[in-house]
């Protein structure tokens, strides 16, 4: 197996040769993939830029002739993803290391995101001290800030690149002593305002023999769970906190995209879905909230997070969306309604207590849900221990019936 380097060898050949040499000095094999388009590689790679372009369904000549930087980066990212996937599936890849500015960061992390969670991935980048979400997405890419631009070797770049190369050697060649128990795995979604429910449900499930993975419903959290469902890592879903759909509908900052709730539905994984935190839309600091929302009900969660109460009209739309998603389920599915409130803020005396909005949400689900989807409700808030246990019991019932229980 080899550490795979993904880089533009026409402009960063010296730096990648240095990283290669550091790794090989540790007795570890290296496979270099050239994704440079502008000129020839400064040294001979293991996979050429020509081969990467062909893996993307184009040619290097075409990319050079068209001289469209954005199109070239997209193509080389797709090609690199195909190449590293082939290397991984053939057992030749121990980890992936990238070095570069925005261009190679885009290409190399596109390749990294094609690999399963758990495969070592490290990107040394000038972009690592800013918003890394476009590069990391919902996978486990480690970002290391290069401090200075990766342009030539000097006392600073040698140290940073050497540290990254040695980190990859450690990650790619050291056997983990982590014990992996063979237990069915449940994915659970959580927000701070649904934490008591999640904690109680998780404790029940673990007591009954399940392993649980809790995802923070911050957009990328929901995306990560959807990804792991499709990868077969998650056997059942307790989707307590579907708040990301409120941000998707209204325009908040923590949306997970229109595919949220699709993975379990399409793969047939048993799921129990609730309405956690659908009373709120998320924004950054209070002064970052768009002017169009002035006059709405807000709750300042902390200096960096401002919450906005969803209206009855928005809640009705959210209820229809949840029902429509679940109606397409190919496996056992239930929706659970906490009639006493969908978050710690949605109870009497708290900022987001709004029975009219909650009624609109619940009525829409009743109206649009297919009879094939089980619906149960309790006169309790979502964080009531009895409601949490009911959620866990229903999912346990589904998973055992499907043959994926403990």
Percent helix, as a range, is 40-55%
How confident is the prediction overall: mean pLDDT?
A: 94
Strand order of the largest sheet: 7-6-8-9-13-14
Beta strand count: 14
Strand content: 15-25%
Count up the domains: 2
Largest sheet: 6 strands, parallel
Q: Which term fits the overall shape?
A: elongated
- The SSE string, one letter per element, is EHEHHHEHEHEHEHEHEHHEEEEHEHEH
Instruction: Kindly identify the CATH topology of the largest domain.
Output: Rossmann fold
Distance between the termini: 35 Å
For the record, the CATH class of the largest domain is Alpha Beta
CATH architecture of the largest domain: 3-Layer(aba) Sandwich
Radius of gyration: 24 Å
InterPro entries: Tobamovirus_resist_UPF0261, UPF0261, UPF0261_C, UPF0261_N
GO molecular function, one term: ATP binding
Pfam families: UPF0261, UPF0261_C
Protein name: Tm-1-like ATP-binding domain-containing protein
Task: Note down, in words, how this protein is organized.
It comes from Haloarcula marismortui ATCC 33800. Pfam families: UPF0261, UPF0261_C. This is Tm-1-like ATP-binding domain-containing protein. Keywords: ATP-binding, Nucleotide-binding, Plasmid. A six-stranded parallel beta sheet has the order 7-6-8-9-13-14, with helices on both faces. A five-stranded parallel beta sheet has the order 2-1-3-4-5, sandwiched between helices. The model has no long low-confidence stretch (mean pLDDT 94). It has two domains: 2-173, 3-Layer(aba) Sandwich (Rossmann fold); 185-402, Uncharacterised protein family UPF0261, NC domain (Rossmann fold, 3-Layer(aba) Sandwich), CATH 3.40.50.12030. With 406 residues, the protein is an alpha/beta fold. Helices cover 41% and strands 18% of the residues. The longest helix has 21 residues, at 69-89. α10 (244-250) crosses α12 (312-327). The protein is elongated and about 70 Å long.
């Amino acid at each position: 197996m080899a550490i795979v380097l993904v880089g533009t060898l026409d402009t960063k050949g010296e730096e990648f040769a240095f990283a290669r040499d550091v790794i090989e000095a540790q007795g570890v094999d290296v496979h270099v993939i050239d994704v440079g388009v502008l000129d020839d590689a400064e040294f001979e790679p293991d996979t050429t830029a020509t081969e990467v372009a062909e893996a993307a369904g184009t040619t290097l000549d075409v990319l050079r002739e068209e001289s469209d930087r954005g199109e070239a980066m997209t193509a080389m990212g797709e090609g690199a993803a195909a190449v590293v996937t082939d290397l991984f599936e053939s057992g030749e890849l121990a980890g992936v290391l990238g070095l570069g500015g925005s261009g190679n960061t885009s290409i190399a992390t596109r390749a990294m995101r094609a690999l399963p969670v758990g495969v070592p991935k490290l990107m040394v980048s000038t972009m690592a001290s800013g918003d890394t979400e476009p590069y990391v997405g919902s996978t486990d890419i480690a970002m290391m800030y290069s401090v200075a631009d990766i342009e030539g070797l000097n006392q600073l770049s040698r140290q940073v690149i050497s540290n990254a190369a040695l980190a990859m050697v450690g990650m790619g060649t050291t056997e983990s002593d982590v014990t992996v128990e063979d237990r069915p795995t449940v994915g659970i979604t959580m927000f701070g305002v649904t934490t008591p429910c999640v904690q109680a449900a998780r404790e029940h499930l673990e007591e009954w023999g399940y392993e649980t993975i809790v995802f923070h419903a911050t957009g990328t959290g929901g995306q990560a769970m959807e990804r792991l469902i499709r990868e077969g890592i998650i056997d059942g879903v307790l989707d307590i906190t579907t708040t990301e759909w409120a941000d998707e509908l209204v325009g908040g900052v923590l949306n997970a995209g229109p595919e949220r709730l699709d993975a379990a539905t399409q793969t047939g994984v048993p799921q129990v879905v609730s309405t956690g935190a659908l009373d709120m839309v998320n924004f950054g600091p209070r002064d970052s909230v768009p002017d169009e929302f002035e006059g709405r009900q807000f709750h300042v969660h902390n200096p960096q997070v401002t919450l906005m109460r969803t209206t009855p009209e928005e809640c009705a739309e959210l209820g229809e969306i949840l029902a429509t998603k679940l109606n397409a389920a190919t496996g056992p599915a239930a929706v659970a309604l906490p009639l006493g409130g969908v978050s710690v803020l949605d109870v009497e005396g708290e900022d987001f207590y709004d029975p009219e909005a909650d009624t609109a949400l619940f009525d829409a689900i009743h109206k649009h849900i297919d009879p094939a989807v089980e619906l149960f409700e309790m006169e309790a808030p979502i964080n009531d221990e009895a409601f949490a246990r009911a959620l866990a019991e229903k999912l346990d019932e589904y998973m055992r019936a499907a043959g994926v229980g403990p």
